Amino acid sequence: MQPRRVAVLGGGPGGLYTARLLKLANPACDVRVYEQGDPGSTFGFGVGLAAGTQRKLEAADPDTLRDLVAAGLRHDMTMRVGADSVRVHNDRLIGIARTELLAVLQRHAEKAGVELDFGTRRAAGDLDADLVVAADGVGSATRENGSFGGRIDVGKGLYLWCGTDFALDAAMFAPVETDYGTFVTHAYPYSGDRSTFLIETDEETWRRAGFDTTTAALGSAGTESDETSLRFLEQAFAEQLRGHPLIGNRTRWLRFRTVHCDRWSSGNTVLLGDAAHTAHFSIGSGTKLAMEDAIALVDALGEAENVGAAFARYEQVRRPSVERLQELARRSRLWWESFPSRTGLPVERLMVAYMSRAGNVPLDRFATTAPDVVRAALEQYGGEPAVGNLAGWVLGRPLVHGGRRFPDRTSVPELETLACALDDPWSPEGDELVARARDTDGVLVTGPPARPALLTRLDLAERVRLETGVLTAVEGPAELRDDLADGLVSGRTDLVVLTEETA
């Protein structure tokens, strides 16, 4: 179909990119972006663009990608725990300032003939357009006032975005211990003199530090940053910051909100990006999802005969990918919310645990990109260099636990059965299972054969192992032995039981 007039609500990356692609596909179409803010105002610091997203942008619009890459900064990834650190090479990952990202997208949208209307708040029902694209963010008024079946799940942990005035030499994950508890930074460079510092903590630590009080004092509105938190964290991360300050930009403690919608369209209006869905920042970015949405929506409009058919096609194509990423992100969020319990692992094994936390990067795949890291992690785990098939080698290592010796990781004694049917091992139901395990000499965590259920069992077993010290084993289908091997190296379980069930 070829709409005559298209209105885009929201001048963020998703809205601007949609507008440009629509105008390139339909030069005669009147495409207008409505953004309530000013052209140069934005929240946040840097944005990451991974290799997969870059490939999709290259196919859809190489001119825009070329300018984004030129404005960005490539970097590797490191993890630091105390004096120990490990580095993973990744020459396709780039960081770019959000201000620069928007400037590039605004420039390319206008170059294509898109009209940009700043400084005015508009609603979908007020616009005279054949098609309205609502890219109005996580707090979308379009979603909240429409019939999209929207709902929001709120995470337990707290985080804040800030920045600093120097460029790290690589992305960095680093915990620091304070008198109140553990804070963890995810930091990365995005220009020659700037880095993003995202900092997370758990609610107990946040309250002990008094940040519940500073957050309440700021209120829910306003543009000020939580300077008390910034100054405390500046001292806590002084080593990582190398004496530089933390910079705020409406910086305050938040809990991550995961947006789900039963429907992404209603009438002539369609949701895009954060308005339709969000995924935790530790594994996906709103920018990635929104720009990939834009590509799919414009493709669907080019293939369909009418708006309804185009919206149905767009959702049919995008929803499976989005929901898969949301599930990976949910697992990643739970892992990060419980991160401090794992810092006793050697940093190489911790990096393996990080890479495999959502079940998306198996050990053998990680070994092809970071062979030195995996080699060291396996030697730490097994006491000698790994040889042959990795999963087979991992399962074949002996174990000494509580004075008992096991010839390999599949020789499991009689243990108390702990049936797991949870989505969240850190829920109150998970607490009850951990409490049950305390009164045993060891537990075998059982459950359905499906892979998501197995990954959850491994997480629950890790809680049991770390919090009680009892011998833990996890049951799973032999066809998922790679996941079980990842769990062993990552310290999620001591032993495994292979079954003949089908995942």
Task: Characterize the structure shown.
This protein is α/β, with parallel strands linked by helices and 503 residues long. It contains 18 helices and 24 strands. The protein has a seven-stranded mixed beta sheet with strand order 6-5-12-13-14-11-15. A six-stranded mixed beta sheet has the order 8-2-1-9-18-17, covered by helices on one side. Helix 18 links the parallel strand 23 and strand 24. Helix 13 (363-369) crosses helix 14.
- Shape by Cα distribution: globular
Class per helix and strand makeup: alpha/beta
| E-strand count | 24
The CATH superfamily title of the largest domain: FAD/NAD(P)-binding domain
From the 3D coordinates, which CATH architecture of the largest domain would you assign?
A: 3-Layer(bba) Sandwich
Mean pLDDT across the residues is 95
Protein name: FAD-dependent monooxygenase
InterPro entries: FAD-bd, FAD/NAD-bd_sf, PheA/TfdB_FAD_monoxygenase
GO molecular function: FAD binding; monooxygenase activity
Keywords: Monooxygenase, NAD, Oxidoreductase
